[in-house]
Design a protein that fits this description.
Blueprint: H1 7-10, H2 21-33, H3 36-46, H4 51-67, H5 76-82, H6 88-101, H7 106-111, H8 113-122, H9 125-139, H10 145-157, H11 161-172, H12 180-191, H13 197-212
Helix pairs in contact: 2-4, 3-4, 4-6, 5-6, 6-9, 8-9, 9-10, 9-11, 10-11, 11-13, 12-13
Length: 213
């Protein structure tokens, strides 16, 4: 019989650590053991009052989601509830987790997409990054493809200079041929306005790649 993972004892805060390595290691152990009880323990602790423990738990959950999203997909409701939190760490942590499971429960994510995007728009750069990642993932679903491409292009046009190249590269992976001309127009319109040479070079490289196809 596999040894039960004692979640609370393994968290960084409990161990008196200020780094995230214990939480990452815990996520790896849970994934390797496919331990659903440990995930349940994390979810319960996440709903407690200790801010540091909650921070450890959301970190562990989304690190786990990056490895084995199926283990956390049933907690989509919990992550969506966290979007209402006044704690920014909980908000962007929940968006990270939702991004991890967006390919597992696309219908559920789509149903809450308006809320997700609204929260991301008011949140940190990390929140916006994961919102874009969610849209890219949903774009892989035929039922949502056209709507997601429209949203992606709209948000690309409004993207901050620092995020523009990264978003453009992500969108290029899912862009449908019928929308390619508009995508290229957006890239060409922004390339000359980007303040850093490195940003312009990234878009230039992407444009060359896309126009060769």
């Amino acid at each position: 019989m596999a040894k039960q993972i004692k979640v609370y004892e393994a968290l960084a805060t409990t161990l008196g650590r200020r780094d995230e390595e214990p939480n990452i290691e815990l996520a790896q152990r849970i994934a390797a053991a496919n331990d659903e009880d440990a995930v349940k323990d994390l979810a319960e602790l996440l709903q407690g009052k200790d801010k540091k423990i909650k921070s450890d738990c959301i970190k562990t959950l989304y690190e786990l989601g990056a490895i084995k999203p199926g283990l956390i997909k049933s907690y989509d409701g919990l992550f969506l509830d966290l979007l209402k939190s006044k704690d920014n760490r909980m908000v962007w942590g929940a968006l990270t987790a939702l991004h991890c499971i967006s390919s597992e429960v696309p219908e559920r994510i789509y149903e809450s997409l308006h809320e997700i995007l609204d929260v991301a728009d008011k949140g940190s750069v990390i929140s916006k990054d994961h919102a874009m990642g969610i849209l890219v993932t949903l774009c892989g679903q035929k039922a949502y493809r056209e709507e997601m491409i429209a949203l992606l292009l709209e948000r690309l046009q409004a993207a901050a200079d620092n995020q523009f190249a990264m978003y453009a590269e992500q969108i290029a992976l899912v862009m449908a041929p019928k929308h390619m001309q508009l995508f290229l127009q957006i890239l060409n319109a922004r390339i000359g306005t980007l303040p850093k040479e490195s940003q312009q070079k990234r878009i230039g490289k992407l444009l060359r790649k896309l126009t060769k196809q």
